[in-house]
Specification:
The protein is mainly alpha-helical. 62% of the residues lie in helices and 5% in strands. The radius of gyration is 25 Å and the shape is globular.
Amino acid sequence: MELTPNNIVLVSAALLLLSVFAGRTGSRYGLPLLVLFLGVGMLAGVDGFGIHFDSAEATQFIGMVSLSIILFSGGADTRLRDIRPVLGPGLVLATLGVLTTTLLTGTFIYYLFHLFAPDYAFGWIESMLIAAIMSSTDSASVFSILGSARTELKENLRQTLELESGSNDPVTYLLVIMLIGLTATDIEAVSISGIILSSSAMMAAQLALGALGGLLVGYAAVWLVRRLRSDNEFMYPVLMIACVFFSFSLTELAGGNSYLSVYVSGVVVGNTRLPMKRTITTFFGGFTWLVQIIMFLTLGLLVNPSELTHVVVPGIALGLFLILVARPVAVFISLLPFRSYSLRARLYVAWVGLRGAVPIIFATYALISPTVGHAPFIFNIVFFITILSLLIQGTTVTHMARWLRLCSPVRESAFSGVELPDKAASSMSEMEVTADMLIDGETLRNALIPEKSLVIMIRRKDGTYIVPKGDTRLHVGDALLLIKQ
């Protein structure tokens, strides 16, 4: 079935509905939702329900827009006070880790195919290109899986992994673009040292411009939101979406790294007090899930499962090398200067090297390029390894943390359904009433409450909420919502 303007709305609605129900069912069995979305897209494709979709250009555009939203939302959820202790390790993992993974995996690819698959024997540039495409952890996968896990990671691991996954996509993007450009260059006529120097200079310049562009657009977005003063609260998220795309496109026009720009813009917005911030955050939470589903459905539609059969053997070999050798070596080298991480923590970071939509989207750049040989084969093997990574690593993220004793259950907020103004919410805290707090009396006025704190709500153990007074009787196990004065 061809996608036409007459049926695309119906098909899209059916696929979204199927994805939601598949995700709800699969989550009960510990399957990553993103794998299920990919599976729905593959099921609906040519080898399944017969929907014909083969536009790598459209897929690349959808991926670009989706990644912009995902990276901005991930940046907005990143708290500077949380990432400050892990800023060094996270950035080293995002740069040195990506380069080390690329070199190790590229060398393995070169010899693997020369020895066991001569028909697909890649040169050094193509081998490094495939490795670079798969070198970064995927922000969508990491944000999604860690966000849905009801556990709290120790040793600042969550912050480290999220910072790495959010900031290594720009580095990978630069590597992929540079290596694709080198496939059209006569390497023998060019100095290798010259290539390395020029590539390093270009990477540094693009990263600097990307960071600068993100800061400028981020603070401009804050300035605009504070001066909008609209009676319609839903205009604020719309304005923020415009700022996301301005951050991406203007940085791209200036020659900077657009993916880094939107991530930095999100960090600026997320760490600034804004009017209607709760509305903006709620909107982007749902919108991010929508673009993730659309992106993975599109990627699933683009691939034909029947074409994956001839990449199974090299895909398994390459995937296992990436998971068990290249990623761990890169992580241990990158974290060598940082003594605060235990051996168990380093092992966990090495294991949570999830691949997802980003490698597949970057593979479309090779698929479109006329200078990259065996591009369909490259796309298929990247797709296969992504599924392998999500199935092996994605399903064991929480189990591995428990096995390494690096997690603890998250205590859900007793006031999660209570809506309060942003300024009030920023200074709130919760505490549970204990017997020691009631030594001087069981009423609120006699309870031992932290100084300069005001109890604004009480949640009884039976789930009822009450507004407290001085003579309100407290019971052990009650939850108190406090605001600092």
